[in-house]
UniProtKB/TrEMBL annotation, chain A:
It comes from Paracoccus subflavus. Belongs to the CbiQ family. It is found in: Membrane. It is a multi-pass membrane protein. The chain crosses the membrane at residues 39-59, 66-82, 88-106. One of its GO terms (cellular component) is plasma membrane. This is Energy-coupling factor transporter transmembrane protein EcfT. The lineage of its organism: Bacteria, Pseudomonadati, Pseudomonadota, Alphaproteobacteria, Rhodobacterales. InterPro entries: ABC/ECF_trnsptr_transmembrane (IPR003339). Keywords: Membrane, Transmembrane, Transmembrane helix.
Length: 207, 238
């Protein structure tokens, strides 16, 4: 499953997504106002406190999401170690970790629908200019819906390959995967059309 | 409410798929039977307004479903054979609410109506579930709830039971039996439409029989068994 929203209900789940996103932007900018490792370390501790307030399961899940950051942190450490700028490296690493940990809290505590609602709000000026924004919202939802399905298509093709070949699946399953994806796209287009397609203008005011 | 087909003809990729189909469907339960490739699915899409016939007319309640998509949203819903081809959204509630916002409901109204239909089916706890993680039968039920939430007067179902096990099929069929809307069910299996009001039999894109199940289904079954004993898989189309 691709959803990153935590099933553990925390107090932060009940805050409106718009406020969380605004706070995230504000706090991230604030992180760039200081170069003191002490201040940034304190900020990181505060964010860690946010995770703690969500309980142990929430904390563990959050740390798992952040684990993918370690190659970047390692690269920063190596680079700044090599050039002898320890303090600068520490500042960058702390800032990166704090900002992403904070963003991750917002992701984990906001439902996709609410995020899309915020986006719809922000795109309102474009709608005022007569541009269609419904497609953007739809596109985000559809990426989330179909990414697992595309992965599954690939797995199925690989399995079908292995059933008839002693060797590992090669680049030759790429074309059939593309063909399947195009075929799926046709079906989804039909499903969208069955439910009215992208009907924008008349309903835009109600969103 | 009636589905009116007048001399409907459709060509896809240069192949004639439907020939001069005419019928006025007013009965609450209509079955369309035929073999694979007989044009059933194409006819289902014509009725739902997803394919515009290149000859003749297809209308529901006097309106052209292919031209007037807004009218079509209120008049007709379609359920495809493969629910994976139908589900557009990552969560159950979004999937159901989408059609309702398309019909002009506000975001909150749509969410409430979606919750109401989930509750009606005793599936309130599905709300936040990932559509991808549902079983095949659950996906098919979700498609049904999605379409029912939009309250169409006619629901077209294209082989809704294929690939479902017997208990799942029975449960879905039970849900179908309590639907108020007119039901047009496409199938190759005469058993599934035995209790219906009227059966259309399509073969090679033509309407070969049209009448009550007692008059049409025995002949259909006999013909299928006769063909089953032969070897017409040998013929290539085109």
């Amino acid at each position: 499953m691709i959803s990153l929203t935590s099933p553990v209900e925390t107090w932060a789940h009940r805050l409106p997504a718009g406020i969380k996103l605004a706070a995230l932007s504000g706090l991230t900018v604030t992180l760039f106002l200081t170069d003191r490792p002490g201040a940034l370390g304190a900020a990181l501790l505060a964010v860690f406190g946010l995770y703690l307030s969500g309980g142990p399961v929430f904390l563990r899940q959050g740390l798992r999401h952040l684990r993918m950051l370690w190659p970047f942190l390692l690269l920063i450490a190596l680079w700044h170690g090599a050039t002898g700028q320890w303090q600068a490296g520490l500042v960058i690493a702390l800032r990166l970790l704090t900002a992403l940990a904070l963003a991750n809290v917002v992701t984990m505590t906001s439902r996709l629908t609410d995020m899309i609602a915020v986006l719809t709000c922000l795109l309102a000026p474009l709608r005022g200019m007569g541009l269609q924004t419904r497609a953007v919202e739809l596109a985000i939802a559809m990426v989330l819906r179909f990414t697992p399905m595309l992965t599954e298509n690939g797995r199925r093709l690989a399995m079908s390959w292995r059933a008839r070949s002693p060797r590992r699946p090669s680049w030759r399953i790429v074309m059939p995967m593309v063909a399947l994806a195009l075929d799926d796209a046709d079906h989804v287009a039909e499903a969208l059309r069955a439910r009215g397609g992208i009907l924008n203008d008349r309903d835009a005011g109600k969103d | 409410m009636s589905v009116d087909l007048r001399d409907v003809g459709v060509s896809l990729d240069g192949q004639r798929v439907l020939h001069a189909i005419s019928a006025s469907l007013t009965e609450p339960r209509i079955g369309i039977v035929g073999r694979n490739g007989s044009g059933k699915s194409t006819l289902a899409r014509v009725i739902a307004g997803l394919i515009e016939p290149d000859q003749g007319q297809a209308r529901i309640g006097g309106q052209d479903m292919a031209r007037d998509r807004r009218a079509a949203l209120a008049a007709v819903g379609i359920i495809f054979q493969n629910p994976d081809h139908q589900i557009i959204f990552p969560t159950v509630i979004e999937e159901i609410a989408f059609g309702l916002t398309q019909q002009g409901l506000g975001r909150d109204e749509a969410q409430n109506a979606a919750r109401a239909i989930l509750a009606r089916f005793g599936k309130a706890h599905w709300e936040a579930a990932a559509t991808y993680a549902l079983s095949q039968g659950q996906k098919q039920l979700l498609c049904l709830m999605t379409v029912l939430a939009m309250r169409p007067r006619t629901i077209v179902m294209d082989e809704p039971f294929s690939g479902l096990d017997i208990p799942t099929r029975m449960q879905i069929a039970r849900h179908l039996s309590c639907i108020d809307a007119q039901l047009v069910l496409i199938t190759h299996d005469p058993e599934q439409v035995r209790g219906f009001d009227r059966i259309l039999w399509l073969d090679g894109g033509r309407l070969v029989a049209d009448g009550p199940p007692d008059a049409v289904l025995p002949a259909f079954r006999q013909r299928m068994e006769d063909w089953g004993n032969g070897d017409d898989l040998a013929h290539l189309a085109g």
